[in-house]
Every structure is written in structure tokens, then in C-alpha cells.
Amino acid sequence: MALTKKITVDKIEILESGSIQVRQAIRIFEDDKFLSQSYHRYVLQPGDDLLNQDSKVVAIAEATWTPEVVAEYQNLIASNQTS
Q1: Which of 56, 70, 75, 77 is most buried, judged by most C-beta within 10 A?
Q2: So where are the chain's domains?
């Protein structure tokens, strides 16, 4: 009777700001029999470090985060800090 935990990225959403929302499905199995599932979500902002990210997330970030998108996001953050 062996318990196994499998974590997979099952949903990736791109927001207008260029932010990427990632949902991980955390599934627990006992001898290959599915027992339970939970979710973990997190957000990456344009220009964030992609080290240790799932390859699908990296591919989407590299395609989405053009220099213009990163600069626009940084300008948005700067203008919100001065307001």
C-alpha cells in the first residue's frame, strides 16, 4: 500500500496585464487508485523569474512577456506607487 502524490499544472490563464495565473492539481493515489485532489494557485507577474516553473508555464511566459508587455507592467506598478 503505497501513497503517491502527483502535482500537475492543469490550468494556465493570461490576464490583460500580462500576469499569468497558474493552477496546480495535487492528486493523491494509493496503489494507482485515486483518493483525493486539491488545488494550489499562484500568479506570476511579467518579468518574474521562471526558474523551477513547469515547462508549459515557461513557454507561455516567453511567448507572452514581450519587452513591451514587461515595460507596460512596470510602468503600471510605478504609476500605482506614486498615486
Answers
A1: 70
A2: 3-82
Residue 16: which H helix or E strand, with range?
none
- Residues 39/23, Cβ–Cβ less than 8 Å: yes
Phi, psi of 80 (to 5 degrees): -70, -30
How many residues are listed for the chain in this entry?
Answer: 83
- CA 46 from centre of chain: 11
Alpha helix segments (H runs only) across 1-83:
55-64, 67-82
pLDDT over 70 at 55, yes or no: yes
| Cα dihedral 16, 51, 55, 13 in deg (nearest 10) | -20
Cell numbers that stand for 80 in this block? 500605482
Distance of CA 14 to the CA centre of its chain: 9
